[in-house]
Amino acid sequence: MPNHFHFMLSTYNNFNEEKFSNGFRILLSSYTKAINLQEKRTGSLFQQNSKAKCLTALSNYKNNNYGLVCFNYIHQNPVNARLINKMEDWEFSSFRDSAGMRNGTMCNKNLAYELLGIPISKTGFMKLSNEMLDPVKLQRIL
To answer: Torsion-angle region of residue 92: left (phi > 0), alpha (psi -120 to 50) or beta?
Structure first.
């Protein structure tokens, strides 16, 4: 997205949210400094108020799994913003990897499938992903 980004992470039971938040803050600050130096500019690159939400994966779409809704929301975001017509057209997300159209290594699609109950077949994945674009169904789930 031109003005924001989303990450969906899986963590361990002993995850230290404070350490992660501080590390992420340092990462964004360092990135901003590098871009500002490169582009001979000053100021923020990102919106000031970062948000973090803890999602619990229930493993079943029919149970209105909030994690699955968020997973699909992230992929649908550029379509909803009218930047593209189809999710697979946005090269800056993990959608192509999750759909088996690209072999990226940034995301663990098997873990996402397992935690969120996503269909393993490309046909099932595409059907579920496009089904979630229906605003009526999205309203019921959210």
So the answer is: alpha
Residues 47-105 have pLDDT tens digits of 766 777 777 644 444 456 778 888 888 999 999 889 999 999 999 999 999 998 888 87
Query: What's the number of CA atoms in the CB half-sphere (13 Å) around residue 19?
Result: 4
> Which amino acid does the sequence have at 59?
S
Residue 55 to residues 50, 86, 107, 134, Cα–Cα distance (Å): 16, 26, 17, 22
Q: Cβ contacts of residue 44 below 8 Å, gap of 6+?
A: 32
In the structure encoding, which two tokens stand for residue 98, read together? 């999750």
CA angle 126, 132, 134 (to 5 degrees): 120
